[in-house]
Amino acid sequence: MDNLLTQLWNTNDKLSILPRRRAQWKRSTTWTPACSSCSPTNPDSASSNAPGFPPNVDLAAMGYTLTGFAVLEIAQGRRIEVIERLVAIDEVCEAHSTTGRGDLLVRVVATSNADLQRVIEEVVNVPYVERTSTSIALTTPIQYRTRPLLERVAKNREFDARATEFDARSARSGEAT
């Protein structure tokens, strides 16, 4: 898979992989895709510059211009079997177990409305999927991102380190008196 993606990336200008990631991608040997055709497309996300994360790929440039979200209601106790079948559908980018009316929230991509219908039919034909409800994303005003969370964690760790240092100084000064 790594060789195929590297070859595609090196020979296809339509793939929008961030330039700053290019050198890291060529050196990376730990890339493991969550699915075979999907990756977040935000230059601000941590995946754009962290080793071991997939490259940022512009799915629209690859022809996958539609993103859909399907809420799946599945038979009780059959989540594992359904997920194992969903993984085999290339256009399924991710799936989340949820609470509420549905059991799984599945993100899919497609090349057209007709292709989305085909993908949804594949999903509906998965054994133990009892009902689906699908929405099409019109726009994505907030792309997948992790940078704000990473910045918050870094800031909190920095604060915790300073607080620990202050506590240690206070303890030493208290011992001195």
Overview of this protein structure:
It is a single chain. The chain has 177 residues and is α+β, with helices and mostly antiparallel strands. It folds into two domains: 68 residues, no CATH class; 73 residues, Lrp/AsnC effector binding domain/regulation of amino acid metabolism (RAM) domain (Alpha-Beta Plaits, 2-Layer Sandwich), CATH 3.30.70. The protein has five helices and four strands, in the order ααβαββαβα. A four-stranded antiparallel β-sheet has the order 2-3-1-4. The longest helix has 30 residues. It is elongated, with a radius of gyration of 22 Å. About 20% of the residues have low confidence.
Mean pLDDT metric: 77
For this structure, what is the CATH homologous superfamily of the largest domain?
Answer: Lrp/AsnC effector binding domain/regulation of amino acid metabolism (RAM) domain
Number of helices: 5
The total count of strands amounts to 4
In the CATH hierarchy, what is the architecture of the largest domain at level 2? Answer: 2-Layer Sandwich
Radius of gyration: 22 Å
Main β-sheet, in a few words?
A: 4 strands, antiparallel
Main-sheet strand order equals: 2-3-1-4
* Topology-level CATH name of the largest domain: Alpha-Beta Plaits
Q: Count the domains.
A: 2
> What amount of the residues lies in strands?
15-25%
- Given the C-alpha coordinates, what overall shape results? elongated
CATH class of the largest domain: Alpha Beta
- Name the helicity range: 25-40%
Given as residue ranges, the uncertain stretches (5+ residues, pLDDT < 50) are: 16-50
* Cα separation of the termini: 65 Å
Order of helices and strands: HHEHEEHEH
Helical/strand content category: alpha+beta
